[in-house]
Amino acid sequence: xxxxxxxxxxxxxxxxxxxxxxxxxxxxxxxxxxxxxxxxxxxxxxxxxxxxxxxxxxxxxxxxxxxxxxxxxxxxxxxxxxxxxxxxxxxxxxxxxxxxxxxxxxxxxxxxxxxxx
Length: 117
Description:
By secondary structure, the chain is mainly alpha-helical. About 45% of the residues lie in helices and about 10% in strands.
């Protein structure tokens, strides 16, 4: 079993959460809406209902496929689940600036998507 390097910790109330060098949770079981909110603040994002529907979609995707989707599969999954207006790269970029697949996966408590730089 490979060990994950811990880079820093996230502190919420009296709880401590280990993060890897890229800021992803070391233990996915540590995820909670409060953790997502704290990680979002680090990204300069205030989570809205639109963010939460993407985060839930990602968590469902991971539960089904055991991987976080890269950008193209993410767009397709959002389009299939939430419709063509929300299933567009521009919509995801607005919600999760920079690299939507990476940022959203991080906030959803998932590992970094494969094939994402």
